[in-house]
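New to this. Explain the following:
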Amino acid sequence: MSALEAMRARRSLSKVTDEAPTHEELVELVSAAGRVADHKELRPWRLIELRGDDRLVLGRAIAKAEGKKGVYSKPLRAPLLIAVVASIRSKKVEAWEQEATAAGVAHALSLLLDEAGWGVFWRTGDYMRAKAVIKAHGLEKGERLLGWLYVGGKPERSRPLRGKTVDGERFLSRMPRKKG
């Protein structure tokens, strides 16, 4: 499948099976995803692998952030969560550029996971900036959580996915020219 076909076939899957790539498989994909555009080659990102009870720790932190007791259940919806962290490393490169690099790594990784046959869904939430969630991830000063990739097996579907298309013409324009 060409890169163009792979992009057109990509879908977020919010329901996945209990299968997940191994740590070794994930390392290989992260190595490739890390080749995104990166001003000054700062590598202003890191990923945190959450499996098993790690997801319960996150669920408790989210519940605490929302002022509730117990475990928030959404982190249990996939066997593997990958926390995406932007690590602001330089004042010479705008923070938004460094966050964009981290987001680029996450997106590239999601495409690679999809291409490798895994279901992927990128989740965010208001609680990403909550102290309990930040502490649970061990974030340091200058680091920002950008969300989690939920990863698992692709379930067998009883009906095919509908092909959603994007009208490229609608989102692509030329530089405006001054008259006169």
Notes: The chain has a mean pLDDT of 90. DSSP finds six helices and four strands in the chain. The radius of gyration is 18 Å.
